[in-house]
């Protein structure tokens, strides 16, 4: 019997968080559920604290918005200290797991080989479509690091993801999606957990690199599916500002990734790509204002 703790990192997503946690509670509960509110400026923490009082769900809050890695590490360390967890699951609030067997089967597969450090499942998007590229991917090459950051024509550059099947219904991959995965605590400790030098984006790439450096493997459960209900209903102006913030966070995390793991090669191209992105977004905003 594995000692599993599921970490749900919330930031101003009370509705999604409740839907996610309530579903987890509806399954046979042989795991701990830990909600970490990443210092939401709204009333998320207070409402979550009140809702799950007495249910056995831990509701914690960080002292500031720490970002994805540090926020999840906060929950992981709590799980280790409070419950002596040997396995943790990272579950974004907008994840819907269809049935409890997804968690149990993925846990069983994770421990079927000592070289497996992390396991992910197959992603179904909000429209009900399966996209293998959203479930796992390769560690980017130096050129892919800046090409993947370039907004113009990015969708056209996507290539089909192919991964080797190494066991029944298990494929070896470089990186599993960070929205939902299970990991062995012993392996995370060796890798010094999630890298807190990134606020958002590229955490999976860094984790994939560190896994390889330590001689571990990330795998994908080909027969286990979950829904990533990621959608945006923002107004055009809000979407523009959101894209500006997103590309800046992505740029900073890619800068760090490039400096630490690619010996700074590609930094100039990455810098030029970020400038192209800003011009592209500005022109798209102006076009939208004129023809709206």
How would you name the CATH homologous superfamily of the largest domain? Spore Coat Polysaccharide Biosynthesis Protein SpsA, Chain A
What is the CATH architecture annotation of the largest domain? Alpha-Beta Complex
The SS-based structural class is: alpha/beta
Number of domains: 2
Straight-line N-to-C gap: 58 Å
Mean pLDDT metric = 92
Percent helix: 40-55%
> Total helix count?
11
What characteristic shape results from the CA principal axes? globular
* CATH-defined fold name of the largest domain: Spore Coat Polysaccharide Biosynthesis Protein SpsA, Chain A
Protein described:
The chain is an alpha/beta fold. The chain folds into two domains: 4-228, Spore Coat Polysaccharide Biosynthesis Protein SpsA, Chain A (Alpha-Beta Complex), CATH 3.90.550; 236-291. The protein has helices at residues 14-26, 44-51, 67-83, 101-110, 132-135, 142-147, 154-157, 185-190, 203-213, 236-261, 267-291; strands at 4-10, 32-37, 58-61, 87-91, 95-96, 116-125, 136-137, 165-167, 170-173, 175-176, 180-184, 217-228. Strands 1, 2, 3, 4, 5, 6, 8, 9, 11 and 12 form a ten-stranded mixed sheet that branches. A two-stranded antiparallel ribbon has the order 7-10. The radius of gyration is 19 Å and the shape is globular.
